[in-house]
Amino acid sequence: MAHALSLGRRCMGQTWPNPAVGCVIVRDGRIVGRGWTQAGGRPHAETEALRGAGEAARGATAYVTLEPCAHHGLTPPCTEALIAAGVARVVSPFADSDPRVSGRGFASLRAAGIEVTTGVLAAEAAEDHAGFLARIQRGRPRVTLKLASSFDGRIATASGESQWITGPEARVWVHGARARSDAVMVGAGTARADDPALTVRGFGARRQPVRVVVSRLLDLPLMGQLARTAQEAPVWICHGPDIRPEIREAWEGLGATLLPCRLAGRQIDPLSALEALGERGLTRVFCEGGGALAATLLGAGLVDELVGFTAGVVLGAEGRPGLGALGVGRLADAPRFELIESRAVGADVLHVWRPV
């Protein structure tokens, strides 16, 4: 099962809205087939592994990192493929929460005389499938917020200079995190100030993540990198109800997808934006700021993982803070996180936190 999980991780960020599943088929103590969900969400891991195993799958055990699907979609159910192949046993961590499956896959296998074992490496599988489960259970993708700052918590000098606070090793790590995510998200202020590409670079040819910008008025540069490359990698913009028709037409003409969202006061309601992304199939969103969007997500309790890079440079009080106003009047009201991991990445310190 550990090997199957490692195979599933190969396709993280490539399979949405489907989960990134791995499958290993073992017969007589020997691996005879293995597979993982392919880019775009199909073929599924089970059919890929069965194709490799061929006749050796008969009487074998299939280790699958999520309950095999039992519904007819664009492809036949994986349960039918496992039954037809003559697999004797299926091992899986837990049932799929998707209501189209949700125990039906295991029931179909058992009805066909196949032994089903569950609960194997369930915690590890839940971590890997956290984005898929968040979308199914909460209607929104899992959100990782990344902040890179100086030792004193600043993300830029007073003049706005920010490249580069952290070192090259940290930037490589960030590109890897983008590659494992369905989407990279920033606020309108960051899009205007930094003109980011938000693409994955240095990891070979691959399906690029969706570039998401949260912009109430859709007031983004029409000659910026996102606009110029909207035909090459997807650009989705979460906007409010009061945008000018000519701006809408311009962005749609460039190939961007526009997602209308509710407002909370004068800002886009962050839950509305995430629900719009979830409705479109996204499961894992990697947010890279800026400070206003980060504060909004934190204040709404929508950050599932907080990733910080701290550099050994000090910018002082005149530097720009990493977060916008949170309105915290009492320490007891501040969002709390617990440390999961801390280590050096080049000359910087990486720390990963989860909500308490």
Question: Could you explain how this protein is built, in words?
Answer:
This protein has 356 residues and is of the alpha/beta class. The protein has two domains: 1-128, 3-Layer(aba) Sandwich (Cytidine Deaminase, domain 2); 139-355, Dihydrofolate Reductase, subunit A. The chain is built from twelve helices and 18 strands. A hairpin with a 2-residue loop joins β1 (22-27) and β2. α3 packs parallel to α4. It is globular, with a radius of gyration of 22 Å. The two termini are 29 Å apart. 45% of the residues are buried.
CATH superfamily of the largest domain: Dihydrofolate Reductase, subunit A
Helix content: 25-40%
Note the total helix count.
12
Name of the top-level CATH class of the largest domain: Alpha Beta
Mean pLDDT: 94
Strand content: 15-25%
Which regions are unreliable across 5 or more consecutive residues at pLDDT < 50? none
Q: How far apart are the termini?
A: 29 Å
Total strand count, please? Answer: 18
The CATH architecture of the largest domain comes to: 3-Layer(aba) Sandwich
- What's the Cα radius of gyration? 22 Å
Indicate the overall shape.
globular
Write the element-wise H/E pattern from the N-terminal end onward: HEEHEHEHEHHEEHEHEHEHEEEHEHEEEE
Overall number of domains: 2
Widest sheet, order of strands: 11-10-9-8-14-6-15-18-17
CATH topology of the largest domain: Dihydrofolate Reductase, subunit A
Largest sheet: 9 strands, mixed
Query: What is the structural class?
Result: alpha/beta
Pathway: Cofactor biosynthesis; riboflavin biosynthesis; 5-amino-6-(D-ribitylamino)uracil from GTP: step 3/4; Cofactor biosynthesis; riboflavin biosynthesis; 5-amino-6-(D-ribitylamino)uracil from GTP: step 2/4
EC number: 3.5.4.26, 1.1.1.193
Domain CMP/dCMP-type deaminase: 1-109
Active site: 46 (proton donor)
